[in-house]
Specification:
This protein has one domain. Helix content is 69%, strand content 0%. The chain contains 4 helices and no strands.
Length: 87
């Protein structure tokens, strides 16, 4: 059987998800401080991943700052999705 790498930090996208993950892990930890520390590191990695922009995203962001598009419905929808993803 072939297995693949699973990183929980790739799946923790919001602060609510991170809080639920931490609470669930505390319930099953049974006082295992090393396990809780690992969970805290997972959450820290998830938070860092939210802040990282690819080079393409960075260049596009700079382009949008210098030459903002007209504010039509598509633009407003995209900005709404972006802000929901960040929180």
């Amino acid at each position: 059987m072939k297995t693949s790498h699973y990183d929980v930090a790739d799946h923790l996208r919001t602060s609510d998800e991170m809080e639920i993950y931490l609470e669930a892990c505390i319930e099953v930890a049974e006082g295992d401080s090393a396990f809780i520390e690992k969970v805290r590191m997972d959450i820290a990695r998830a938070q860092d991943k939210q802040l990282i922009l690819t080079r393409r995203e960075s260049m596009r962001l700079l382009e949008l700052i210098e030459n903002p598009p007209p504010r039509n419905d598509k633009f407003l929808q995209a900005m709404s999705r972006y802000h929901r993803r960040k929180s």
